[in-house]
Design brief:
Elements lengths: L2 H20 L8 H28 L6 H14 L3 H33 L6 E5 L2 E5 L9 E4 L9 E5 L2 E4 L1 H4 L5 E3 L4 E2 L4 E2 L4 E5 L7 H11 L6 H31 L3 H16 L2 H20 L2 E3 L2 H8 L3 E5 L10 E7 L4 H12 L5 H10 L8 E7 L3 E6 L2 E6 L1 H7 L11 E7 L2 E9 L6 H10 L4 E5 L4 H11 L3 E3 L4 H13 L4 E5 L5 H6 L2 E5 L5 H6 L2 E3 L6 H35 L5 H20 L9
Parallel strand pairs: 11-18, 11-20, 18-19, 20-21, 21-22
Antiparallel strand pairs: 1-2, 1-3, 3-9, 4-7, 4-9, 5-6, 5-8, 10-22, 12-17, 13-14, 14-15, 15-16, 16-17
Length: about 625
């Protein structure tokens, strides 16, 4: 509990004790003494509300909950209902305390994330260690990170071996082993031994900085239900004030209850009409849901995206790096007219300038020094492969489409996998078969997606149809669209979206940025350190676990269900007590419950959004 919350609690306790004591003080007919006595607990517990209301009135901001409380309680004092006036303010402050505690708790996961920001960085300059602000560290400097310290800036380990706790970034508790040449990200905690890290980014461009900016801005993007409640409250509050005045006038004109009784009935209407249960619980629910997601390494950029995520009924996935590991390895080498060594040598030289996983696997399988002087011009042919000049001769290295385009007499391989064909001009030289492993959680993730209400799962991939069909069969996906060029992925996604519903696209966030932005909601996975992912996607999974997508969908659905529960419950109870109060059937106690009681119940219900739902 914060210092401010403790002070409010002390004021509530003092005012409550005094309110009880007042019942035992004989005041007789001395109304002025009774007023003076009840004003003491009233001002102790409610002075800040009254002052706040007056300040807003002076600024022209009427008709908020503080204004309603001030009018209701001052009106109660004016007609001699001193205990009710004090009790209404007391219970209103109880509700405010509950709200403050609940908001603080829901913010805790966000504030915990803020703790991943290191205060200082130890830079090695001219052989000496210098402690500086992380913002002062430049790209390429050497940073020393001791056990227990946070990595201040993204970089590459230059010296040492250690284990890192990356749970604040990815939501996973298992430590990650790193050594020389390993990429490390700011916000990770060094566990075992000191390492020296060569920075690869400025502080403002580092992973931790981007994550914090994303989380801090997430509440700026409001969901439709939040926007509705905000607009509703602006119209609703002045309307109920006018209705309260009309009730008072109607009671004076058409009943014999007198001015005081008529005002009292109007005050009941004012107290119960306070919209704070809606205004507080709806954004609190979204904030709790976003906080719960962040603890699992799922960053949702705003409550509007959480609302969209809750409606997802179609999930479209990339294959490589999403369903499969993306760790390609050469499975077979099938030469034609030349030997295996020569075939892999040509392919490795052609692919040596590419950072594509398939190209890297070929270079790795080659395992020999690449002589750059043998390589001439290399032209990339989008979605097909490349044209390379090696030792003065023109080779084509790529997929079936490329072979068909150049008129090469290629043939398919009997082994399932990605075939990389090699041709000297039109003369076919053979092919290399590359295979990729399934991620261990892909099959279960697909099953969990279906249990979470996703009725349709589609794979879009540039890989050949045989490999795509094999992967889809292994994980339980029926709809596969293979051999797609990058622009064709967008076209296929648009066809899928044209059938209606809400569609999410899941990709690695680097090569799939156009499709991520095209979908109703884009989900980038394995985005740790990826600028493209954080920029293009609406939901960012900091690691590469497909299983986090059904968790995110279930969390979003639970959050929206809580929001709807609070809206329906709050309005139903308030409208019922308003009607009963206007008819004189219930009094101020029911009105207090309709305000504070409903607020507390709505807050407690909203707090459920902070818990991550389990798969049933």
């Amino acid at each position: 509990m914060t210092k401010k919350q403790k002070k409010r609690l002390i004021r509530i306790i003092i005012a409550a004790v005094l309110l009880v004591v007042m019942h035992f003080i004989p005041t007789g007919d001395m109304w002025y003494l009774k007023l003076a006595l009840y004003m003491i607990p009233y001002l102790i517990v409610g002075y800040d509300i009254v002052l706040g209301a007056f300040k807003k009135i002076l600024k022209g901001r009427l008709f908020d909950e503080e204004f309603l409380m001030m009018i209701a309680t001052i009106g109660a004092f004016a007609i001699g209902e001193y205990p009710e006036a004090t009790a209404v303010m007391l219970f209103y402050q109880v509700g405010e305390l509950f709200q403050s505690i609940a908001v603080g708790k829901s913010r805790k996961s966000i504030s915990d994330m803020m703790d991943i920001v290191p205060d200082t960085a130890v830079v090695i300059r001219d052989g000496a260690e210098e402690e500086v602000d992380p913002c002062e560290v430049s790209v390429g400097e050497l940073v020393l990170v001791k056990p227990g310290e946070k990595i201040p800036i993204d970089g590459i380990v230059e010296e040492g071996n250690t284990s890192l706790n990356t749970s604040a970034l990815t939501g996973e508790s298992l430590p990650v082993e790193v050594g020389k040449g390993s990429q490390v990200f700011s916000g990770s905690i060094n566990i075992t031994s000191a390492v020296k890290v060569r920075t690869t980014a400025d502080y403002e461009d580092s992973t931790v900085s981007k994550i914090l900016e994303l989380v801090e801005n997430s509440m700026d993007k409001k969901a439709k239900s939040e926007q509705f409640i905000t607009k509703f409250a602006r119209v609703y509050t002045p309307c109920v004030v006018i209705l309260a005045v009309l009730i008072i006038l109607a009671c004076i004109v058409f009943t014999d209850m007198g001015v005081a009784g008529s005002i009292y009935r109007g005050l009941i209407f004012l107290v119960v009409s306070c919209p704070c249960a809606l205004v507080v619980s709806v954004p609190l629910s979204f904030f709790g849901g976003i906080g719960a997601a962040s603890r699992k390494g799922i960053l949702i950029k705003g409550s509007n995206f959480m609302e969209t995520l809750s409606k997802v009924d179609t999930v479209v996935c990339d294959k490589t790096g999403t369903i499969t590991k993306g760790n390609f390895a050469v499975d077979a080498i099938h030469p034609s007219q030349i030997d295996e060594d020569e075939l892999i040598d040509i392919a490795a030289l052609a692919e040596s300038r590419s950072n594509h996983p398939v190209a890297e696997s070929i270079v790795k399988a080659h395992g020999k020094h690449i002589k750059a002087e043998r390589i001439g011009d290399i032209e990339e042919i989008a979605g097909k492969g490349l044209k390379a000049v090696i030792d003065g001769k023109t080779y084509y290295v790529g997929n079936d489409k490329l072979m068909r385009d150049i008129g090469s007499d290629y043939h398919d391989c009997h082994i399932p996998g990605t075939s990389v064909h090699v041709s000297l001009e039109k003369e076919y030289l053979g092919h290399i078969v590359i295979n990729d492993e399934l991620k261990p959680d892909s099959k279960k993730a697909v099953q969990d997606l279906k249990k979470s209400g996703v009725g349709r799962i589609v794979i879009l991939t540039g890989d050949n149809s045989k490999v795509a069909a094999k992967v889809a069969s292994e994980v339980g996906i029926d709809d596969v669209r293979a051999e797609l060029m990058p622009d064709m992925k967008v076209a296929e996604l648009e066809k899928i979206m044209a059938k209606g519903g809400t569609t999410a696209f899941v990709g690695d966030g680097i090569n799939d940025a156009p499709v991520l932005t095209c979908a109703d909601i884009g989900i980038a996975m394995g985005a740790l350190g990826s600028d493209a992912a954080i920029e293009a996607a609406d939901v960012v999974l900091m690691d590469d676990s497909l299983g986090k997508i059904p968790v995110a969908i279930r969390l979003a659905k639970k959050t929206l269900r809580i929001v709807k529960e609070n809206i329906i419950f709050s309005l139903a109870v308030k409208i019922l007590i308003m009607i009963l109060g206007a008819l004189g059937i219930v009094g101020m106690r029911a009105a207090v419950f309709g305000d504070v009681g409903v607020l507390v119940i709505a807050i407690l219900n909203a707090a459920r959004a902070m818990r991550i739902p389990r798969q049933s």
